[in-house]
Amino acid sequence: MTFSKMMKHERMLVLILAAILDLANGLYLSQSSVNAEPGKSLAISCRDPGGQQVTWKGPKGPLHAHTRPKIQDTSIGKLLIFTPTSVHDTGNYTCSLLNNKNEFKVFALVVEDHKDTTFETDTSTNDYSNTNTRPHRGRDHENSPDSDPDPIYFKDTPEVQRGKEGDNVTIRCEINKPLKLNWLLEDEGENLGPRYKPIGDGLLIISASRTEDNRVFICEVVKSNTGKVIHKKIRFIVEHKPITVTYPYNTDTGEPPVWAQNDEVYGFQGENVNLTCEVEAEPPPTFEWRSSNQGHKKIGRVIKEGTHKSILQLKMSEETVDKYQCIASNKHGKLKKFFDLQIGVRPDPPRNIQLVSAGSDNIELKIEKPEENEEAIDNGMDPRWMNVFYRNVNSEDWDEQIFNITLETFNLTELNSSTMYEIMAATRNVAGLSALTNNTFIETKNAGSVQIDNLSFLSVVMVNSLILLTSKLA
Q1: How many domains, in total, are found in the chain?
Q2: Closest Cα to residue 380, out of 416, 343, 355?
Q3: CB atoms within 10 A of CB 224
Q4: What domain range includes position 415?
Q5: What CA–CA distances, in Å, run from 240 to 210, 213, 466?
Q6: Within a domain: residue 364?
Q7: Final residue in a domain of this structure, among 93, 111, 129
Q8: CATH code of the domain containing 179
Q9: Domain boundary among 212, 241, 270
Q10: Is the pTM of this model over 0.70?
Q11: DSSP per-residue codes, 146-201
């Protein structure tokens, strides 16, 4: 026998001996010792026959509902639950009366990875942190017939269950034994909240279901004679009619939200224009496009992006100027979105780009705006944004930053130091972009040189201050 195996066996014997020595105490412990492999689910029950409160303590301190391992109160006692077991769980776990620590029972756990023949020392940090994060559970665990002659297993429990928004919905979980089931949320443990109510026969009631109830629920059961824990994850989906997709207003650029019930859309003569209709819906919606002039006739090219977005692409001309509507519908209802398509006027481009300053990670530009056009202003076609396009000259990928056109200077940020950038700019109005300016090449500074420049500036300030102070003293 190798030294590492001898050490493992010796450690196991010491732990089991410690558990055996406390058999005279009156507390009931479902098991006094277990030798397990990593990755198994395990629960040990402790209770006082007289009904007094008990508490668990592990090798590193007190245990409760949000530690690992966790504690759970049940009708069969206070459970010590490992989901799953780890080699770091090896040790003695003490169950004692809450008001009398001198009366206790010890449970000895040895977790061995038989694939690893080296002696393993626990150097982990304190695992008993106060956290609501539930340990990862992996696949559903069930007793196999060859290891358990009386297995527990789930039946008639779909992994995906659905309910309609606004209804009181029942999630079902059923096992083959008349045992009590516990309900949990995947990332929040036992904190179900007031709208989730477990009832008998493995049912969970969700009051007035809403879209935020789209989540994963877990039902689990503990087999008291073995401490075996089995569980099943159930993904709940709330079905609802199509609703709007909301986007925040861009306060930096002044751009409006993408989704509006009534949309004014502009296109340039002879160019393609896209009308985009995106909704949230469950089940996914079907889309239908109509125009006031052509009714149900084919009016353009329909492009489907995923299951919840439809795009109508039109070539802009006098004939395509019209009012269009997108109808998104599923079995729960429909939503209409309206587009007023008009011919737009391309804005005038910027005149030139001038460098204000270049740092190690930014370039500040002065971009001369085009002259004001009164006709464009009257028609709402005046430029409102400045779009700056730039790329590292060693890359083919262009980046873009959008600014409100009223700014005095335009600062490109998050750039690389000591890098040459190619830069172009265009104005943009509600219809689209102007022509691009000629390209300009500007290099960012070396990060070290910026620090030297700052130091030189500070030195000048200090020297000037010293001269001023000396002259006053004189």
Answers
A1: 4
A2: 343
A3: 16
A4: 353-449
A5: 9, 12, 73
A6: yes
A7: 111
A8: 2.60.40.10
A9: 241
A10: no
A11: TT-SS---B-S--SEEEEETTS-EEEE--BSSS---EEEETTTBT---TTEEEETT
Query: What is the token pair recorded at 61?
Result: 């301190």
CA–CA gap between residue 54 and residue 350 (Å, rounded): 77
Question: Would residue 335 count as lying in a domain?
Answer: yes
d(CA 85, CA 136): 11
Length of the chain: 474
Interior angle at CA 338, CA 336 and CA 339, nearest 5: 150
Based on the domain organization, do 82 and 69 belong to the same domain? yes
The answer to whether the CB of 308 falls within 8 A of the CB of 281 is: yes
pLDDT per residue as tens digits for the range 20-73: 444 445 788 888 888 888 888 788 888 888 788 899 999 888 898 878 888 888
437 and 367 inside one domain: yes
Residues 69 and 41 in one domain: yes
Residue 304, phi-psi category: left (phi > 0), alpha (psi -120 to 50), beta (remainder): beta
Q: Is the Cβ–Cβ distance between 326 and 277 less than 8 Å?
A: yes
The SS3 call for residue 110 is strand
In a domain, 459, yes or no: no
Residue whose C-alpha is closest to residue 218's, from 152, 142, 143, 137: 137
The Cα 232–Cα 204 span in angstroms is 14
Question: Does residue 348 belong to any structural domain of this protein?
Answer: no
60: helix, coil or strand?
coil
For residue 156, what pLDDT is reported? 85
* Other CB atoms within 10 Å distance of the CB of residue 192: 16
pLDDT number for residue 247: 60
Q: Is the dihedral of CA 36, 42, 47, 49 positive or negative?
A: negative
Same domain, 443 and 427: yes
